[in-house]
Amino acid sequence: MYFNVQIIGSGKAVGSHVVESMELEKEMGVQRGWIEKATGIKSRYYVDIRKNESALSLGIEAAEQAIQKSGLSTEDIDCIIGANGSPMQAIPCAASLFQRELGLEDSGIRCFDVDTTCYSFPMAFFVAANMIANNIYKNVLVISSDAPSRTLDITGKEVKSLFWDGAAAFVLSESKDESKVHHFLLRTYSRGADFTCVKGAGTLKPPNDPNTLPEDNVFYMDGWKVFKAAVRYLPIFFNEFFEKNPYNRDDYKFIIPHQTSKKGIDIFERYGFTKEQIGNHLKHTETVLLHLFQCCFMT
Amino acid sequence: MYFNVQIIGSGKAVGSHVVESMELEKEMGVQRGWIEKATGIKSRYYVDIRKNESALSLGIEAAEQAIQKSGLSTEDIDCIIGANGSPMQAIPCAASLFQRELGLEDSGIRCFDVDTTCYSFPMAFFVAANMIANNIYKNVLVISSDAPSRTLDITGKEVKSLFWDGAAAFVLSESKDESKVHHFLLRTYSRGADFTCVKGAGTLKPPNDPNTLPEDNVFYMDGWKVFKAAVRYLPIFFNEFFEKNPYNRDDYKFIIPHQTSKKGIDIFERYGFTKEQIGNHLKHTETVLLHLFQCCFMT
Question: Can you identify the CATH homologous superfamily of domain B5-174?
Answer without folding.
Answer: Thiolase/Chalcone synthase (3.40.47.10)
